[in-house]
Design a protein that fits this description.
This protein is of the alpha+beta class. It has 3 domains: about 60 residues, 2-Layer Sandwich (Uridine Diphospho-n-acetylenolpyruvylglucosamine Reductase, domain 2); about 110 residues, Uridine Diphospho-n-acetylenolpyruvylglucosamine Reductase, domain 3 (2-Layer Sandwich); about 100 residues, Uridine Diphospho-n-acetylenolpyruvylglucosamine Reductase, domain 1, CATH 3.90.78.10. The protein is about 25% helix and about 30% strand. It is built from 8 helices and 20 strands. The chain has a 5-stranded antiparallel β-sheet with strand order 6-7-12-10-11. A 4-stranded mixed β-sheet has the order 1-2-5-3, with no helix packed on it. The protein has a 4-stranded antiparallel β-sheet with strand order 13-19-18-17, covered by helices on one side. The longest helix has 19 residues.
Amino acid sequence: MQHNLSLKPYNTFGIDVPAAWFTELTNVSELPGLTALPQEKFILGGGSNILLTQPVSGLVIHNELKGFAIEKEDNDHVWLRVASGEMWHDIVLYAINKGWGGIENLALIPGTVGASPMQNIGAYGAEVKDVIETVSFWYWKERTILTYNNRECAFGYRDSIFKSELKGKGFITSVVYKLSKYPTYNISYGAIQQELEAMGVEEPSVKAIAYAVMSIRRSKLPDPAEIGNAGSFFKNPTIPLAQFQHLHDQYPKLPSYPVSDTLIKIPAGWLIEQCGWKGYRKGDMGVHAKQALVLVNYANAKGNEIWQLSGQIVDSVKQRFGIELEREVQVW
């Protein structure tokens, strides 16, 4: 247990705020003892999807639960149970090296396994909900672990029961993923097909698709080790078809992705760029020059400064397009 520890090394934004109390969790057997402590508890994983705006007055528990194993398998699938403190990308690499499909499009997404169901992480036409079998969740009050099946997780776009109804009531300890031994490839979204062609790949594989995704992400997104950031700061908004048609009449180049017969998804990055924010910088904070979805800390920006910048962006997009952006990053 440490007192007044800086959380700067533990969040990819590189925001320097102290935690009143800090400890690391390495085994689920430690949970009853931690639960008995009186402080309010905050679980910190990879720190890749949070913005720290003030000192944390309670107990920050750094999730270091590690390990993964095959829970069962048959001729077509393998069920892999993974501890929530494992780094997500490490599990993707393990799966593609085994030839197991289902998460290759989600390569290089930062953070831990525990964040994958909470955020229902997604990229390039795939969402992790499509491969999650069960999620195990520790309850602080009841001091027990309960298991939620896929339906009970109430997955939505970058959303789940763990971000809403169960927020603050406990945390995810492990996840079981159902991966395919004979996967169906998803290469129609974004620039995956073009990247595969540039790589000289004629027959897709889970490994080739993952490496294509990694190449695309590295070309667009800043490395947190070089520039503090939390990846995509905003969700891509979904709007009614009628509203899209009205906007498309004004902006013929407006990109879009149909969600249903009545709903259309719009890239938030395009909206932000049209409002002139791409490459914006004030002091040590700003908007990344290559990807307008990404807010950055160049050195010593404060979390509340970045939060205020995000509010200015939300206001400008709403004023111009009538669309209110929703922040994806969790705020402490």
